[in-house]
Amino acid sequence: MGFEYMSQEGYDELVAELRQMETVELPRVREAIAEARDKGDLSENFEYHAAKREQSRLLGRIRFKQRVLENARVIDTSRLNRDGVQLLSKVGMTNLNNNAKMVYTIVSPHEADFTKGKISIKSPIGQALLNKKAGDVVEVRVPAGTLRLRIETIQ
Q1: Is the pLDDT of residue 79 over 80?
Q2: What are phi and psi of 143, to 5 degrees?
Q3: Concatenated DSSP letters of 87-143
């Protein structure tokens, strides 16, 4: 696993999620396991098995987030070149298919949230925009067909 570049905001969110899982969710699951164990026969105990499965799933998520954080490198946004689209660029564009205007920030896959206007640098749109400049038109194949996007601004 190589370095995972991300914003300070994305890094801080990951740290908070990890802390929540370790200090709130995990103790709650362990308590549920202990309570279920106290009820006796474990072979027939649905609550016990469900809690054990939940603990296993949670530990997997914790290990994954720990690995991401170990490889995370926070980008100093003040040193970014704003000529071309890159990680953490805020890109204003026009969809030439319907003249809709939109603004998206290019982020690491772990920060991507389409509803918040954050698209992954590894997504088809993110890849197509990479290193392009204001005024460029890019074509992106998406499940619904081909998007034609004109880059208006890069911040």
Answers
A1: no
A2: -50, -30
A3: TT-EEEEEETTTTEEEEEEEE-TTT-BGGGTEEETTSHHHHHHTT-BTT-EEEEEET
Residue 81, pLDDT above cutoff 70: no
> How far is the C-alpha of 85 from the C-alpha of 151, rounded, in Å?
9
User: What's phi and psi for 96, nearest 5 deg?
Assistant: -70, -10
- Cα separation of 121 and 111, whole Å? 10
pTM more than 0.85:
no
What is the rounded CA–CA span in Å between residue 14 and residue 93?
29
Cα–Cα distance measured from residue 143 to residue 118, given in angstroms and rounded to the nearest whole number? 19
Average pLDDT over residues 66-83: 77
Say what the pLDDT of residue 80 is. Answer: 62
What single letter denotes the amino acid at residue 16?
A: A
Number of Cβ atoms within 10 Å of the Cβ of 128? 17
More confidently predicted of 130 and 78: 130
And the tokens for 151?
Answer: 């880059």
Name the token pair of 108. Answer: 């690491």
Instruction: State how beta strands 72-74 and 90-95 pair.
Output: unpaired
